[in-house]
Amino acid sequence: MSIISWENAETRHRKEGFIKIYVDEKIGARKLRMHLSVLGPYKRPHKPHRHDGEEIFFILEGEGEVKIEDEEFKVGPMTAIFIPSNLLHGIENAGEKVLKYLVIVAK
Questions:
Q1: What class has domain 10-106?
Q2: FRET partner for 9 with CA separation of 20 to 30 A, picked from 1, 2, 3, 64?
Q3: Residue ranges of the domains in the chain?
């Protein structure tokens, strides 16, 4: 068991924003990963990609655009996006305010 506070979560700064890592192998998680992503206006963390493992984006603040395969969806606060394994996907801040969202990955 682990309890990870904001202060204790690892922070990784990037040019487009930052992430706070809460759950990963460093605390003993074998199948789950979770981090908070914060993106500046009109930024994206990386190009759309594919990977093994299901993933959830949970939008906390701001407006985003999510791409899943060939479709694009506008998303806002308190919205969950479930992405099955191996689908092309990505997210981008679609507004002038910060986009904050949780990323949960099950491997």
A1: mainly beta
A2: 64
A3: 10-106
